[in-house]
Structure prediction request, 247 residues.
Amino acid sequence: MFTLPEKRFYRAFQRPKGFKTFNVVAGESDLWIAVPEAEYREGIEKEVLSTLISIREQIKTFGEQNPEFLKSLTPVNLPAFVPEVVRVMGEASKKVGVGPMAGVASAVNLFIGRKLTELGFSQFIIENGGDLYLKVERSIVVSLFSKNPKFSGKLGVELSPGEWGVSTSSSKIGHSLSLGRTELATVVGKEPVVTDCSATYLGNSKTVVEAKKRAEELLKINTGAIVLIEGKFVMAGEVKLVRLTQK
Prediction:
């Protein structure tokens, strides 16, 4: 039900200044987390891991009792009483029109972020399979990676201070199911589970025209979107694209 493990090559480039980084792994969930160095303390990893295991168990148990939740590529109706993480996934999927598991990575990120806030961290960056949930007090640039060497690692999206979800789907990279032909489909917004579902929807685009239409549709619930398809970029909304300095 959760994604299969893969080599996260892009982590070699993740070095946020002033942050302490660590990894937390449970089953197929492999999270890279950054918190302010001044706020880091020993033992945090154990507390975060406990939360991660709990989140996974809630989703797994519900999925075993409700297999459609795990398999459906369209929104599903949920019982009145479900774990909060399941409810968040279900609501996000209905906003976008995809299956609830399209938002699983960022749902995990969201609840880990809540735990970090509860533990007193003023900022954090959480990356899970290429999906990001950030709470930052300064502008930050998120790099974009694809199999196209002309663009991969050479462009980024600049985010202003605040909380952001940044999610990416691709038919060329990664383990997640994609029905489209996009090399890169990235969505930026304030709700990380919504951006995750939206990236799946956008990533299912098969043509430039379809990608443009879907990107514009998603602006109702997100801040901006960027798609690389057929060697062309399609952008919609407020996305500040920047060129990265090659080192």
Notes: Residues 1-13 have pLDDT under 50 and may be disordered. Residues 9-243 form a domain with the T-fold fold (CATH 3.10.520.10).
